[in-house]
Design goal:
de novo design (two linked rop proteins); about 5% strand
Length: about 150
C-alpha cells in the first residue's frame, strides 16, 4: 500500500509542477488550461493568493519574497512519499491531512474569492483526498494488526 501512496504522491508532484509552470508563465500568454471563463489556471496562478504569504494590494505582481503555492505542494508531496517509503504511516497521514485541509482552503478561495477554478488545483485536491483515505486505511490496518498481535500474545 505504501507504493500506492508513493504513486499518488508522484502524480501530485507532476500536477503541482504543471501548476508551477503556469505560475511562471507570462500572464499575457494564454495558459494551456484556460478552458472557459470559470476555468482559468492563469488567473488563479497569477492571483495574489498564488504565493505564500499572499501579496498585498500594494505589492507588485513580481516583487517581494513569496513562495509559490505550487512549490509548497511539491514539497508536501515529496514529504508524503518519503514518510510512506520510510514506513512512518502516522506522519504520512498527518502530511496528507495538512495538505488536504490546505487544498480545501485554496478551493474555498477559488470558489468564493477569485470565482475562477484551476484544473490543476482540482486535480491536486482529488489526489490529496485519495492520499488521505489511503494513508488512513494504512493506519487502520496497522492498528488492527497490532491489536491482533496483542491478543495472540495473551
Amino acid at each position: 500500500m505504501k507504493y500506492l501512496v508513493v504513486l499518488l504522491a508522484v502524480a501530485g508532484i507532476v500536477v503541482s509542477s504543471m501548476a508551477l509552470h503556469v505560475h511562471y508563465m507570462d500572464p499575457s500568454q494564454a495558459p494551456p488550461c484556460a478552458v472557459t471563463e470559470k476555468f482559468d489556471c492563469g488567473a488563479v496562478n497569477h492571483s495574489r493568493f498564488a504565493v505564500f504569504p499572499p501579496r498585498t494590494f500594494d505589492d507588485p505582481p513580481t516583487g517581494g519574497h513569496h513562495i509559490p503555492i505550487a512549490a509548497i505542494g511539491i514539497a508536501g508531496y515529496v514529504l508524503i512519499a518519503a514518510f510512506a517509503l520510510a514506513g512512518w504511516r502516522w506522519l504520512a497521514f498527518q502530511m496528507s491531512l495538512i495538505g488536504f485541509l490546505f487544498a480545501c482552503f485554496l478551493s474555498y478561495l477559488e470558489a468564493y474569492v477569485l470565482e475562477k477554478w484551476c484544473i490543476y488545483c482540482l486535480w491536486s485536491q482529488g489526489i490529496l483526498t485519495v492520499l488521505l483515505v489511503v494513508t488512513g486505511i494504512m493506519l487502520a490496518v496497522q492498528a488492527m494488526r497490532t491489536q491482533r498481535l496483542k491478543t495472540v500474545e495473551r
